[in-house]
Amino acid sequence: MRPWVAAILYAVLGAITFVVCFPLLWAISTSLKPKDEIFRWPPTLWPENITFESYHELLFGGSVASAPGAGVPPSAYFLTWFANSIIVSVGSTIISITVATLAAYSLTRFRFWGQRSVPYIAILGYMVPSVIFVFPMFLTMVSLELTDTLFSLILGYVCITLPFCLWLMWAFFRGVPIEIEEAALVDGASRLQVFRQIVLPVALPGIIAASIFSLIVSWNDYLFGRVFMNSMENLPLTVGVMHFFDGTHVDWGLMMASSVLMTLPMAILFGFMQRHLVAGFGAGAVKG
Amino acid sequence: MTDVVVQGLSKSFGSNNVLKALDLRVPSRQFVTLLGPSGCGKTTLLRLIAGLEKATAGEIRFGERRVDTLPPGERNIAMVFQSYALYPTMDVARNIGYGLEVRRTPKAERQAKIGAVAKVLEIAHLLLRKPKQLSGGQRQRVALGRAMARRPDIFLMDEPLSNLDAKLRAAMRGELRRFHLDLGTTTVYVTHDQLEAMTMSDLVVVMNEGVVQQIGTPEEVYGRPANLFVAGFIGTPPMNLIPAQVKDDVLTVAGTPLPVPLPPGAPSEVVLGVRPQDVSMAKPGDAGAIPGKVWMVELIGSERLIEVEIAPKIRVTAEVRASHRAAIDDVVAVRPDPGHVHLFDPSTGRALTA
After folding, report:
1. Which residues neighbour B286 within 8 Å (Cβ) at sequence distance 6 or greater?
2. Which domain holds residue B132?
3. Last residue of some domain: B175, B204, B232?
4. Which residue of A has its CA nearest to B164?
5. Can you give the residue ranges of the ABC transporter domain (chain B) (predicted)?
6. Does B131 touch chain A (CB under 8 A)?
């Protein structure tokens, strides 16, 4: 490549990277600024005086448990919301992945009526925007008396993540040769051993990919949390942090610190999972 | 010490009858090959013996033990798959030892067995690798090692050499035969390659359309084919199958009487089978030689195939020395060796024996 071509290429790529990363950088920067510096004009790109007061308020600003009732600042709920988000994302992911893995396995390994159409119908369901069925689902939750419970959110997230997880696992299992299972059966393994010791390890990259998808969808959801939940102590993070807008003013420091803390778990998760995701692919059991 | 007995075995997939009331006995310690064109049911038969398919009717016994109701893991068999089917997430050692592992063989004993097998197969240096880091031939050996480690009663092999290149395949043929002679384990081997069947087997089972056509030693199926299918399927180039007439105890092909001994009660129309190697070239008018015109000449190395049209659309191939020259449209004659001809009844396809 000619030097000037490379220079232009790098300049363009650098610009795109900056644009993509800027909101996150700005969030980090704002979260570390003292309150008076946040609104200063012209703005500072990087805080002159770094402070962790926003983080301190979120993480150690007292908890609802110690001082319940009215007049509690929204920031006191932060850890509760965080825990709620973790419970519903992890809970819905575990259900989605378990059901999707078992369903996809049976769809590729056993013969029954509708075997071919189920994955396609599922993916069709995933293509419908969730706004369309959030209200029917809310009404269902009302009749089940599940509104304002974390369980309703878990069910909601399973509904939107399961179809795609099923599709992903189905595509994955279709690529796993049945001979390796037959070989294990001949070797004397039970059906369960075959599934646990042969199939699951092979399917691990698919399971990780589907888990990441499901975690991200449920962690980032706003709609279901907004519609299903009322009480302050039951909100997921995404909905909860909106209480840092209180009509008259916005606490940008808290808002940005929350955003950074919200991003962290997913970023860490990605860092760990990525290696597994790549390492598992390209298994060459069969003629390669 | 296990023979395999198959009685009245049928298998249908929907309306497709793949095996039709099949009977077969594989004697203990023998290497038996199921040979046939694709779709003849040979792999289905193997999978039924393995327990990977359920029979529609009939029974399978290993010695005195009835096994067709047992799951594959309780039949004490080992199977080598065409695709090798190694466990992709396990290293070579665990692949070989997996059968022992699920049977809860103590670790020390397991490792000793893995080591012994790896030594025989010369894959001891590969034990820590994953299947994807192996070449085709190495994977083949691991698959074989996995089968050998458990000391099964019966080896089942489903075209295990078909994914190897020609040179490696030839080498592995010999090795497989050696292993069989050393271990003496009853082996059922599926192939569509007659060279593998002829070179490796004690017994060849020729199958077509779900029916056993002939069971015999390689010499028998080659030298005394039981019917037209076996006659046409075994041997390269394939046997000439020529329509012939019997009149007054004399066999006539395209108007030429041939000095072939006839079995008693031969029908008036028969099929004469003769291998190209047993056909020699002659001059028109020679006794016992059928006149015709050269239709095609092919050189196949040290031999030459001369195809002679003796009547419209009826051609006879002779395999002669490469030094024998012939040109297309030459007027020649072909003489079948009367001592090496086979006669078949065209209505039943069966061989007519004297």
Report:
1. B333, B335
2. 4-232
3. B232
4. A287
5. 4-234
6. yes
